[in-house]
Amino acid sequence: MKQKLLLLVCFIAGIGFSQAQDLPTNPTPGKCYVKCITKDEFKEVEETIQTYPAYTNLKVVPATYKTVEDRVLVKEAAKKFVYVPATYETVEVSYVKQASRNDLKVVPATFGNDSRTFEIYPKTSGWEYKVLEDCPSVNKDDCVAACFVEYPAQSTSVGFTTLSSDASTSSVPVPEQTATYKKRVIKTPARMDEIEIPAEYATIKRRVVETPATTTTNTVPAQYQTVTRTVLDKKGGITSWEEVDCELLNATPIPIYYELGSARLTADSKKVIDERLLTILNDKPVSIEIMSHTDSRGNDDFNQSLSQQRANSVVNYLVSKGISRSRLSAKGYGETRLTNRCSNGVDCSETQHQRNRRTEFRILSN
Predict the structure, then answer these.
(1) Is 276 inside a domain boundary?
(2) Which residues of 223-246 are buried (b: 16+ CB within 10 A; e: fewer)?
(3) Residuewise pLDDT in 10s, the chain (366 residues)
(4) Would the keyword Signal turn up in this protein's UniProt record (predicted)?
(5) Is 0.85 surpassed by the pTM of this model?
(6) Inter-residue contact 56 to 215 (CB < 8 Å)
(7) In this structure, what CATH number is given to the domain that contains residue 323?
(8) CA distances (Å), 166 to each of 36, 110, 169, 229, 365, in order?
(9) Beta bridge partners of 195
């Protein structure tokens, strides 16, 4: 349990808060921080090795012939030229009869309202202390937490009149005046048309190679063997402070349900894990503990075993989503941590028993 003591900056000191070292700079008021040390991550890879090489067998296939017909030129093509005169058309051309201009118009000044805020009392801040729940140490100073709290400044506003825009002039455009005149232009220019006199052709026959001599290849495949080995995927040892919500440092219930008498997760429970736990683990390099509980009904040993299996199911699901198992801890408490009086032999309603059948999580340090 001593290795599980939370190194928190909301703050938990090693011997006492007064001796804390290397705390986060610029802490956010009301936030807590977890000291994270990343661990080495490993993965299994399959490597295929060749135990016998591939080789080929060759067989010669002789060439084959076929008769083809070719079209050959017996008289070359020629050209002749024909003169075509130009044609004209009448068009109207526009021109500017009177140029455009800009007249000026006076725009009077305009006014608006504004206000200014003055600080009448300054912002204040300071540290507040609390003792975390479930402290695993006999010395409570090991679990003292300090939260940095900030109170906002107080202000008041004073209104006044401002000049929105000073007096000016605006430009009023007066468009130009246009007119047209008629002009004769070339519609199609004179040209020389080129007329092709086609060539004349004849057909001849000849024998050509249809398929050249080739070889056929018969490939005998290589033989392989697959070897599975474990390799380092990501080097750990990096230390950082991660900001977390203070309420996540204590046991936080989540609506995870299982099939009756089983540790199999339902589809709705997997959705809750994706939204609540997978989001935290992907965003921050923190570790979490999954704690599963049962009610008091049934055999005590069975309840203890079932709660451990259910906590393991959550961890295994997160591992299947790509989370390193070294960041996850599963603990089943059976019926040892009931939230009400409903222990063995006590008559309770189904609703009261249901409060004890719960799954919780909390953030741990690495």
Answers:
(1) yes
(2) eeeeeeeeeeeeeeeeeebbebeb
(3) 333 333 343 433 333 333 344 676 777 776 676 656 556 666 777 888 888 888 888 888 898 988 988 888 888 888 888 888 989 999 988 888 888 888 888 888 888 888 888 788 888 887 777 766 676 766 766 676 677 778 788 888 887 788 888 888 888 888 988 888 899 989 899 898 888 889 888 999 888 888 898 888 888 888 888 887 777 777 665 556 665 556 566 667 888 877 667 888 888 889 999 998 999 888 888 889 999 998 888 889 998 998 999 899 999 999 999 988 888 999 999 889 898 999 998 999 988 888 888 888 888 765
(4) yes
(5) no
(6) no
(7) 3.30.1330.60
(8) 61, 7, 10, 80, 64
(9) 80
Q: Which residue's entry shows tokens 């570790």?
A: 287
Within a domain: residue 225? no
Q: Which among 11, 20, 3, 23 has a CA at the least distance from the CA of 240?
A: 23
DSSP 8-state class, residue 363: E
Tokens of residue 283, six digits: 């965003």
Which tokens hold the place of 114?
A: 């504004």
Do 357 and 261 fall into the same domain?
yes
Q: How many domains does the chain have?
A: 2
Q: What is the rounded distance in angstroms from the CA atom of residue 286 to the CA atom of residue 241?
A: 10
Distances (CA, A) of 142 to 4, 27, 37, 126, 148: 12, 21, 19, 21, 18
If you ran DSSP here, which 8-state letter would residue 274 be given?
I
User: H-helix or E-strand containing 315?
Assistant: helix 300-320
Domain that holds residue 67: 57-75+202-220
319 in the same domain as 214: no
